Q: What sequence folds into this?
């Protein structure tokens, strides 16, 4: 396994955190945010949202580890699955922003996305 300077890992991790912020908040339209939470018709907005994550990860991959471009597809699939699961759990339990459990669920969702980014950073640096 190659040795990587700590600063390289830190810069790449920061890049992935910024990537997540941009894709999850800046690029997420109202159509995506509201649509992916619906009981029906949720697939197109959620696919578009996860696609933003995949596209941003692809950009990072092409700069730091082009042979691992396919990890963008993995990131998109994981993001899709995590967000869908969060939506289903919130709807089935009736948790809304007025309930503390909703915020625990949202925090868990964000933690899973952060752990995904750590996994991607590890993969990118393990060439």
A:
């Amino acid at each position: 396994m190659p040795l990587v300077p700590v600063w390289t890992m830190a810069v790449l991790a920061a890049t992935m955190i910024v990537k997540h912020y941009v894709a999850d908040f800046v690029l997420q339209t109202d159509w995506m945010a509201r649509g992916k939470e619906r009981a029906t018709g949720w697939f197109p907005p959620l696919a578009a949202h996860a696609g933003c994550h995949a596209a941003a990860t692809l950009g990072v991959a092409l700069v730091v580890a082009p042979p691992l471009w396919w990890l963008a597809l993995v990131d998109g699939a994981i993001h899709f699955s995590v967000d869908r699961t969060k939506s289903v759990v919130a709807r089935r339990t009736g948790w809304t922003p007025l309930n503390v459990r909703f915020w625990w669920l949202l925090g868990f969702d964000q933690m899973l996305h952060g752990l995904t980014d750590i996994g991607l950073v590890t993969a990118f640096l393990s060439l």
Q: What stands out?
A: Helices lie at 6-26, 30-35, 43-64, 71-93, 100-125. The chain is about 75% helix and 0% strand.
